[in-house]
Amino acid sequence: MIEALRQGLQALDWAILVYFILLNSFYALLLLLSFPELWTHFQLADDEYFARVLATDALPPISVLVPAYNEEVSIASSVLSFLTLAYPRHEVVLVNDGSKDRTMDELVRAYDLYEVPPAIQRTLPTATIRAVYRSRTHSRLLVIDKDNGGKADSLNAAINAARFPYVIACDADTLIEPDALLRLARPFLLGREIAAIGGTIRVVNACKVEMGRVVDARVDSRWLPGCQTVEYLRAFLFGRLGWNRIGGNLIISGAFGLFARKYLLAIGGYQTGNVTEDMDLAVRLHIHLREHGIKADMPFIPDPVAWTEVPASARILHRQRERWHRGLIGTIWERRRMLFNPRYGSVGMVALPFFAFGEMVAPIVELLGYIGLLLGLWLGAVNAPFAIAFLSVAVGYGILLSMWAIVLEEVTFRRYNARRDLWRLLFFALIEGFGYRQLTVYYRLHAFWKVMRGDRGWGVMQREGFARPAK
Amino acid sequence: VSLLVALGVIAVAQGVFVVMLGIFVFARREKLLRRAATVTRSRGRLSAPLAKWLVGSGSVLPVKDALRAMPHDAALVFASEICDTRVPRELRAELGAALREEPWAIWAIDGATRRRWWRRLDAARALGIVGTREDAELLEPLLDDTHAAVRLAATQALAAVDDPELVRLAVLHYPGEALAVRLFTTTTLRTVWQLAEGPLRDCLTSRDASGRQIAAWLALAESLNLPSLRPAVTALVGHPDPEARAGAARALRRYPHAETVEAVRTLLEDPQDFVRAAAAQALGALRATEAEPQLERGLSDGAWWVRFRCALALALLGEPGRAALRRARQSRDKFAREMAMMTSGLSEGAVLELGDV
Q1: Which of A48, A56, A163 sits opposite B357 (nearest CB)?
Q2: Three-class SS of residue A455?
Q3: By CB distance 3.0 to 4.6 Å, which of A107, A182, B128, B241 could disulfide with A54?
Q4: Is A47 within 8 Å of chain B by CB?
Q5: What is the SS3 assignment for A448-466?
Q6: Distance CA B290, CA B307 (A)
Q7: Do strands A141-146 and A129-135 pair parallel, antiparallel, or not at all (unpaired)?
Q8: Rg (CA), chain A
Q9: Which residues does residue A65 pair with via DSSP β-bridges, in sequence order?
Q10: pLDDT classification of A17: cutoffs 50, 70, 90
Q11: CB atoms B4 and A422 under 8 Å
Q12: Three-state DSSP class for A199?
């Protein structure tokens, strides 16, 4: 019995080693692919000449869609920051999703709203619209007051009301850099047919924020936000850029993504039952483009930046990561017919299998690895020096990937000016694999448990606000 | 054992690599800080001689020297910036001639035939500063480059190079260009409009061109706003392709004339809704009060965009239009009533902003 267990553990070790090599080889490939992609973007992003070119009338008009629920404290300043984005032609469509606080009253007061007939096209079904308002002081603002239906439902209402061919979905509590829309629109300038564009999300927690703008980018000294800062850099600077080259960007962030309205309408808008509406939307867009033979790109570009607050407590991080992973499981399960289906090109053959077997299953494999290692050591089935060397390589590889993300940040955009912040990034890159990684594995495993129980809730994301600058 | 050794070697190599990356990050930052200080110093040295030269009390030589002290790429960026924003057109030739043989300009122009698109971009940009008619051969392939950013910079060099054949090519390629390249071609063609006028008229009257091409050339004609093009533009309201008719309606906004208004009014009865919408928008922009009854009828059009454009156009017609909107607010037609209510509360500024789509 013990011998059979030993043999089983050895087989498990080998299986995990093979999985580790395959997965990390793919990460290395993404990293390699991200170099030319990042360099190409950086040539234009850092170009003063092109920055002047961007501020022209050649850009398509954009509707900024902002769903809001119980945001009475910050709604007036958030809307002002959206209205004052540096972009030649844009409107803001704000949807009050049946807030229970004084969000609507605050909007009416701050922007001198007056009710207009709901003369908007209702292509996508939504919860009942109570009233539509325009502002006497800001003609670019349209406010829709509707019954509560969730974020996806609000976005659908906003898509219906949007006048312009491109829409950008934002969270009311996301800080968009003033020139981010201009940068996001760069592919249009270069004549590409675009279905969606994703921008970068960065961590705002310790940054100095004035009037809804990040004026000094800083790295939080606390463990959880600090590790997440490195994690976001890694995810955006080489993960998504690498996917650009493969043609399988599956995530256009829900907090900051631009979409062609006609394609959103064609796929029926956002799905109201999904807990991570952004990935689901991107996958459905890919399906639509493939099935209709439409040659439109869905690139990620690194220089348009929106800042968001990340969880500073383990409790909130748990909720967020568990929900994200639940969304990933749900989306992959729902779209399982696409897996290894050549009809869907690189999305079906590479991206979705990677997300299924690399991202979704990874926490289970990692847990099995930890269990197998401990049991193996206990039973003598695993050679201790081998286990230590393997662990060192695994952790070292994670550190190396994070270091590369920091190098990419440093050779291109350099948002963090203070040397102290650079030290912090390096420090968090070194310690991320010890504790933080295992914590997120646990949260993601919890998602499997919740999926089995049929839990579909969102959970509450409590925020600290933007008033805690780094020391 | 061999696997264990291999893993050990990989682990050590990774460790060394991590340390090297850390050193690289800090070393690069130090280097960039030093470079930024050099560029700032050179820029500081440049501002006084540049101001003197611009007001005619100094020579261009100190400007040249200050640019030479910068790294090549920084000199190119800064020269391009001052050329675009500070140097008046009549002084550009003098600046171009002075900088033509500078090492950074030679380095940049040398990139015109390179494989890397950003090197070709630098070349196109340099030609925009120091280019002359002798550079036409060098500029021609850049105008047709595979990367839109290069084409965009090359169009800016058209004004410096000032070659009739290149201008004709730019007009001919215009419909196939990305939006931004079109915009920059337009800006450049405004400065060499005498060379652009003839080729554009030929394009507008071409029988082989598609509706989409005609629409693009109409957009160019709208921007150039040359009175001599009005008859050719007006004639296109009868084009069989609806995109061309819509383009004609949009272009005629910039050609106020009794004939123009009459031509656009016929488009309000067009079978295509986007042509009717464009016509309504044009009539509003032309402040065509004589079209008020037609626009009022347009408030009951079956297409939302036509109703919207008609309402905005009426709001721009002054009192007659506002009166029509007030009447429409009492209309039995629900769609006309709602559209009139939505727009009649807006100021003229708000209507202009709302209608600028």
Answers
A1: A163
A2: coil
A3: A182
A4: yes
A5: HHHHHHCCCCCCCCCCCCC
A6: 18
A7: antiparallel
A8: 23
A9: A93, A169
A10: confident
A11: no
A12: strand
- Rg (C-alpha) for chain B, rounded Å, is 28
Tokens at B69, concatenated: 């002290």
Quick check: A470 pLDDT over 60? no
The two structure tokens encoding residue B267: 């488009």
Residues of A in contact with B357 (CB under 8 A): 61, 89, 163-164
Higher confidence at residue A340 or residue B84? A340
Counting one residue from A and one from B, how many pairs have CB atoms under 8 Å apart?
133
- Side-chain half-sphere of A275: how many Cα atoms within 13 Å? 23
Cα B284 from chain centroid? 24
H helix intervals, B192-272: 193-204, 211-224, 230-235, 242-252, 258-267
- How high is the mean pLDDT of chain A? 86
Please state, in angstroms and rounded to a whole number, the distance separating the CA atoms of residues B303 and B308.
Answer: 9
Tokens of A21: 């090599």
Q: Do B350 and A139 touch (CB under 8 A)?
A: yes
Q: Is A434 helix (H, G, I), strand (E, B) or coil?
A: coil
| Structure-token match 């709901």, residue found | A118
Instruction: Centre a 10 Å sphere on the Cβ of residue A349 and count the other Cβ atoms it contains.
Output: 18
Cα distances from B85 to residues A128, B66, B81, in angstroms, run 52, 18, 6
Rounded CA-CA distance A64/A259 in Å is 10
Tokens at A69, concatenated: 């629920």
* Residues B217 and B203 sit within 8 Å (Cβ to Cβ): yes
Q: Which of A52, A189, A386 to mutate to test the interface with B (most CBs of B within 10 A)?
A: A189
Segments of B101-211 assigned E as strands: none
Q: Quote the crossing angle between the two packed helices B242-252 and B211-224, to the nearest 10°.
A: 10
Is the separation of the CB atoms in B141 and B169 below 8 Å?
A: no
* A145, A205, A222 from A418: Cα distances, Å: 44, 16, 17
Rounded to whole angstroms, the Cα distance separating A130 from A335 reads 35
| SS3 call for A470 | coil
Binned at pLDDT 50, 70 and 90, residue A31 comes out as confident
Q: Which residue has the tokens 């017919």?
A: A337
CA B125/CA B76 separation, integer angstroms: 8
Top pLDDT among A421 and A77 is at: A421
Q: How far apart are CA A414 and CA B29, in angstroms?
A: 9
CB count in 10 Å sphere of residue A412: 18
Query: Which residues have CB under 8 Å from B33's CB, separation 6+?
Result: none
A155: its two tokens: 């976005």
SS3 A62: strand
Of A279, A291, A91, the residue nearest A198 (C-alpha)? A279
Task: With CA atoms as reference, report the closest residue to A259 among A301, A201, A198, A202.
Answer: A198
Q: How far apart are CA A377 and CA B50, in angstroms?
A: 75
Closest among B300, B325, B328, B326 to B313, alpha carbons compared: B325
CA distances from B128 to B77, B123, B153 (A): 12, 9, 8
pTM here is 0.77
Q: CB within 8 A of A453, min separation 6: which ones? A: none
DSSP element (H, E) containing A305: strand A300-308
| Token pair in block for residue A205 | 């927690």
Longest dimension (CA), chain A: 80
The two tokens of residue A14 are: 């080998």
Reading the block at residue A285, the tokens are 């867009």
Which ipTM did the prediction report? 0.73
Angle subtended by helix axes B117-130 and B72-85, to nearest 10: 50
With H, G, I as helix, E, B as strand and everything else as coil, classify residue A200. Answer: strand
Which residue of A58, A139, A404 is in closest CB contact with B346?
A: A139
- In A212-271, the residues whose Cβ lies within 8 Å of chain B are none
User: Which phi and psi angles does A143 have, rounded to 5°?
Assistant: -120, 130
Which pLDDT value is given to residue B1?
65
Using CA atoms, how far apart are residues A16 and A368, in angstroms rounded to an integer?
8
Q: Which helix (H) or strand (E) holds B307?
A: helix B304-315
